[in-house]
Amino acid sequence: MDYQELFWEAISTLTVNKLRTGLAILGIVIGIGSVIALVSLGQATQASVQSQIQSLGANLLTVQPSATRTGGVQGAFGGGTTLTLDDANAIATSPLITNVQNVSPELSRRAQVTTGKTNTNTQIIGGTAVYTDVHKVTLAGGSFITQGNVDSLSKVAVVGPQVVTDLFGEGTTPIGSTVRISGQTFTIIGITTSKGGSGFQNQDDIVYVPLSTAQKVLFGVDYLSSIALEAKSSDVMTDAQNEVGYLLLGRHKFNDPTQADFSIFSQQDILNTASSVTGTFTSLLSGIAAISLIVGGIGIMNIMLVTVTERTREIGLRKALGAKKKTITLQFLAESIMLTFTGGAIGILLGVLASYIISLAAGSAFVISPSAILLAFAVSAATGILFGWYPARLAADMQPIEALRYE
Amino acid sequence: MATSRPIIEVSHLTKVYKTDVVETVALDNVAFTIKKGEFVAIMGPSGSGKSTLMHILGALDRPTKGTYVLDGENVGNLTDDELADIRNRKIGFVFQAFNLLPRTTTLKNVMLPMMYAGISKNEREVTAKKFLTMVGLGDRMHHTSNQISGGQQQRVAIARALVLHPALLLADEPTGNIATAQAEEIMAIFQKLNDEGHTIVMITHEPDIAEHAKRIIHVRDGKIVEDGNGHRQKKIKN
């Protein structure tokens, strides 16, 4: 009895009772399907979070004021006022700083922007000409803020596509139009291209103005909310972080780095954190799906045990006619493996289909991981062997006379 | 038929069933020889030990004591798989309840023992068709076992028993589940097979079925009480 024959025997046995076969594989279908769909969903989320973070700028370091400490009371994160334009200039000009390429001092606040007819509450970023290089911002039309604009406190603004849509309607190009920000009239000189961001920080919903204008005209402050730094390459991120850290510790007169009134984040830190969060999320989902796979496997075992009992006389006959233990074991194992394999194949198809539908609905990338499919196949075969083994041994160990007598 | 080499030789055959409390002696020091070409009926009331004897002769069970030589091979204390091999090569079974695979064609049923013997699929099919034709079911090859009558099912079982040219055809109440008219047909087949030289051992409790055999062994309380020719049975000392 060769393996091809075992295979056909198993198929013909399983097709005799289609409803039961269908119900038996349903558990595996759902188990494998949900593993594939959820792993794909997790990976799609991870990929989209990574690409969003990377679109914020490459080799990016961000200096932010730490939470202020006033008499032991810790203030809100980022609420400090200790970073100044002098700090930014020092970083840019100090001979000790060798690994930083561009320095972008920034002041960010939320404010109401209005055209008179329409208005929106959006993020205002005061920046300098170097902002586009550091944050990889490109323009769909017009030009960005120049050093001249900064020097002369110009009331000019560069707007994101979301702001254009909110204020002027979709598809318009309002270069030259004016908007009012906190009561001051600004002329729009440029529109940025869409970065497609969403969620916690929509990079298309921003109005850029000259840093000097933001500080002196709009908000009346002389500090910065952050300094963005572009390192010369991804290899020197840590060096750049250390150089800037020492310089600022000295300037702010701190000896103990843990007491510093600022902190420096690298793009990589954020990326790692986000990756570990989405990775945990993915494993959590897969874990839940794996439980349903185990439940499916138990379903297979249950059906196989019923089958063995029901076919006691058949087993007795087969043994009387000369079937050896191994043959009987293989016959029942072949049936359970067929069940889980068929279930696994259908599960993979449904899982891929489900992830495609999820990707369409969420507008995220359609990611199918071959490793997940391979794993699903291996797991379904292993489930068949694992949960089919006991019933198969039970059948093989039957004594032929007992089995023949069974009613 | 002239006497020739022995097919079955049993001596001191004893089978004891043990439970926690009691020991039941099902076979008590039984000895006999069946030669090639004999047609033997084993008779006895229920509980006489004839089923136990049939199980041991069929290599389905092992004796507690004694020896059993089947067609020159000692079947005394073989492993389960070795017994399976003996059953496959040397014994053709015909059961009271036919024991065909349900929802399976008669052709596939007859092919089954050859599959366990490792014969190629083509050869299996050719042989199975030949034997089905021989038992008069050449036109029922693709019917499933539940689409044919009891007598026909038993003829399929006989074809299945014969395909590997067994040394012994072992029938357990072969007419117990079928109508009288068809029972006669079955017995006619057995008689024809015996005329062709097949050795047949048949377990039955019906005297008129046993009459078809040339030799009748009566079993009672685990012992042979009579062993003789069909009509002229002689009482043996017990």
Commentary on this structure:
The complex is a heterodimer of chains A (407) and B (238). Chain A is built from 13 helices and twelve strands. Chain A has 407 residues and is of the alpha+beta class. Chain A has two domains: 3-52 and 273-405, no CATH class; 81-260, no CATH class. A six-stranded mixed barrel of chain A has the order 4-5-10-7-9-8. A two-stranded antiparallel ribbon of chain A has the order 2-3. In chain A, a hairpin with a 4-residue loop joins strand 4 and strand 5. In chain A, helix 2 crosses helix 11 (325-362) and helix 9 (267-310) packs antiparallel against helix 11 (325-362). Chain A is elongated and about 105 Å long. Chain A starts with a helix and ends with a helix. Chain B is an alpha/beta fold. Chain B is 32% helix and 28% strand. Chain B contains seven helices and ten strands. Chain B has helices at residues 50-57, 80-90, 106-116, 121-134, 150-162, 180-195, 207-210, and strands at residues 6-18, 23-35, 39-43, 65-70, 73-74, 91-94, 168-172, 200-204, 215-220, 223-229. Residues 232-238 of chain B have low confidence and may be disordered. Chain A binds chain B through residues 1, 5, 16, 313-314, 316-327, 399-401, 404, and chain B through 55, 58, 60-61, 80-81, 84-85, 87-89, 93, 95, 99, 101-103, 112-113, 115-118, 121, 160. Chain A: The chain crosses the membrane at residues 21-42, 284-309, 330-358, 364-390. Chain A: Residues 21-244 form the MacB-like periplasmic core domain.
